[in-house]
Amino acid sequence: MGRLYRIAIDAFYRFNDDDGWAIASHIALSTLMALFPFLIVVTALGAVFGSKELADESARILLETWPKEVAAPIAREIHDVLTNLRTEALTVGALFAILFASSGVESLRIGLNRAYGVKESRSWWLLRLESIGYVLVGAAASLVLSFLVVLWPLIWATAIKYIHWLEAFDGIVTFARLAAAAAVLIVALVVMHLWLPAGRRSLGEVAPGIIVTLMLWIAGGTLFGRYLAEFAFAYTIYYAGLASAVAALFFLYLVAMIFIYGGELNAAIRRARDRSA
């Protein structure tokens, strides 16, 4: 336990030395700015396959793990944006949306490079193309996942029609939504830690930071949700019509700090192993 405590403290001090607070604010703002463009890309791809409504489902999955006090107003704004998109926004505008969304990926790369103590040697244009690739793959994966989630109730209803005893497990539909959201988070974290920063790491090397990140995200999201439930009026008083955006930005700042700390923790574990060796 003493060794684990020293590793955790080492990670915190390195987080502080690596300007983790400032980088977390950059990630939070970039993520909030990239969220709407990313969903515009999803909508554009969905329109190609004849179903723009899947973008709404993608947004619900992405916000499933957010505290409802933060997710509800953001979800309303996302719905308004996606339902009022004109055709030209789904064509030429989608190109700009891809560029803006890829900037959010680049902010995550900067945070992980600092955390792992590595210097980027790849060309900037190659990194940007890679980030755009992540955006497109993520958008396509969101559509596939949304399609499965939308289709699941129909599959389940058909199964109950022929196998009546399955009706007792009707709550599995809700569980499927939560499982889908959790799967998106876990896969995204694994991909980001393995391939976003410079250098290469094994799954075993990044697993501790990912597990701690997920645990702290659950705890932080729960506490922040309770805080907003009690003191949401303070945001309304101070920020008026911007209250929901500021609450979302603060929540993303908390999420970004934990995300960077997960990378710092992996680096601290590696340093401790090197010292032992």
Task: Please characterize this protein's 3D structure.
The protein has 277 residues and is mainly alpha-helical. The protein has one domain. Helix content is 83%, strand content 0%. The protein has helices at residues 2-17, 20-48, 54-62, 68-83, 92-116, 124-162, 172-195, 203-239, 243-276. Helix 3 (54-62) crosses helix 6. The longest helix is centred in the middle third of the chain and has 39 residues, at 124-162.
The residue fraction in helices comes out at: over 70%
- The overall pLDDT average reads 81
What would you call the quaternary organization? Answer: single chain
Low-confidence stretches: none
Structural class of the secondary structure composition? mainly alpha
Order of helices and strands: HHHHHHHHH
Number of helices: 9
Strand content: under 5%
Distance between the termini: 19 Å
Q: In total, how many domains does the architecture comprise?
A: 1
Task: Give a short account of the largest sheet.
Answer: none
Number of strands: 0
Overall geometry: globular
Q: Return Rg in Å.
A: 20 Å
